[in-house]
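debug: dumping io for the single-chain case to check the tokenizer round-trip. Nothing else runs in this session.
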Amino acid sequence: MKRLLFNEQIKDNPLRSKADVKAALLDILSPAMEVLGQQKQKGCFRMSDSGAVYLQEKTEIEGFMRLLWGLGPFFSNAENVKSYPEWFEMVTTGILAGVDPQSDSYWGGNLGDYDQLFVEMGALTAFLYETRTDFWDHLASTQQRQVIDWMDQVNGRVVPKTNWLFFRAMVNKFISDAGYADHAQFVIADYAITNTHYLNHGWSYDGYKNQIDNYIPFAYQFFTLLTVGLTDWQGDEATLLRERAKAFVPSYANWFAADGAALPYGRSLDYRFAQAAFWAVAAYAHIDLPSGYALGDIKHLLLNNLRWWFQQNIFTTDGLIPIGYAYPNMVFAEGYNGPASAYWALKTFIFYALPDDDPFWRTKESEDFKFVPLKKQPEPRMLIAHSRSGQEVQAFTAGQHSHEHAAGAAKYEKYVYSSTFGFSTPKGSVLLKQGAFDNTLAVSESDNFWRTAFKYQDYQIHDDYVYSEWCPWANVDIKNFVIPEMPWHVRVHQISTARRLHLAEGSFAAPDSGSAVEKVLPTAAKNAVFYQTEAGITGLVGLSSSLTVALSTPEPNTNIYFPKTKIPLQTGVLEPGEYTLISLYLGDREGESLDENGQLQLPTIDLKENKLEFTLNGTTKTVVLREL
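debug: decoded output
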């Protein structure tokens, strides 16, 4: 079948059968394999030349290895080995050249501490397990030894005490299973470390206790279950990992919306549909499911997320996947995002390795989407809220922090993150339009050089609101209270400042594409703006006279969903003193804020001492703000 520009044909794939899944995998792999076949250097995939924190030549090795995440499941099927012999030959000769010290394509025998290739060894190990019958078992003993010797370098170097330990454990598990050495104690030692990172409900932290993000399902859950599934691991450790995965199911399910989108939060969003990798590996490892969940639910969460992703503009003209999220975007990338890093998403296709007679393929995908309207999640420090029918998920966060990664404040420390409106990362800090300050408060001592919340002094996650305290300067204290009431939420800031402060605070960003449906909605509210687009309605009502509301236009390519956006924004100046600022925000995917005539229905807000009353259509909800 002819491949269309931008891989457009994948948008029509219903993903209802194993044949559909194979077609999607081929659509993703084919453009990359075409490029790979034109390159002289074996075991390398040069996609472009943007930089990463590791050596440029290693970005090309990384690219090759990341393709293995899809090629391994694909070639676990012997029929595909026969049907695609050129691919199989290209990949396997690339591996053998990469581990051969006499080859011009050798991947190196001098790997240093913290070497990026330790991460990529996970893909190679998985491939060796998945294709053992058709590849590994046919190798000469000298070739097997070269593979083992190259991977064994991970045992003589420093590896960070993070998710990287899982890659070393995978290597040592394979070395043991292949009969080359007994490295069982190495595996036990690494898991003894990662077990100390465990929190609860299936969540762990990855190196930093204040940074809990998509990397937990991406890595801690995925690679532990992958090792269990690939190796038929038995014993207490494997049982423990399965139990943690079972506990994780109802928690992580709330990070998804009924339309298939997952909550975009934190780093490594370049990995895109790796968001569904947990569901894929849970099916692959045949974990027990908690009460209320069946295999059809897991299948739906997995396939629905893939369907959502295949509707996004994630491909270039030639069908490759560049750095980005819902469209190509270098602005929000981490330093470790190489040109082909996004192909880590292919690990989600582990479920394709399930045999044709596996219950997964025979089970009917669930039609209902299970969600909790408002759920407290203490481990990732969030209140997770869903819209009326679950089409949107919003996360109200407090206390998360990342100092290590680019735009960490934007990725972790905003007040709200949305599966519909995404979030924005700044291009600069001098002008407001560079900052793209959606769902955050920015402060400055002038009308330039803005800063947003970075490292909270205190935080609390309550059942009905989140609280945080931030000190941008030693003599400025800002206490923040965010109260969700989907599709609305209220923010209260208690500010004590000895400095003159410029403030800017935004609502949700929404697309500015020139579409006829994009318009500013009329409202009777003073100091308010509401903006309606095909994505939904965003808005802001400023209830404090100190700030003025307007619709702002930030720099292009700041939002992870929309190349161009508008953000309802309030700005103003505070003289030294004590202030309590209250504002009302709208992020409405489903039109819940409109009456039957399409008119906005505005809540009223009343704050008396520490009791906040939210009234809408005659119904009042009272929230006691304990820290106020």
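debug: round-trip ok. The chain has two domains: 5-256+266-362, 380-594.
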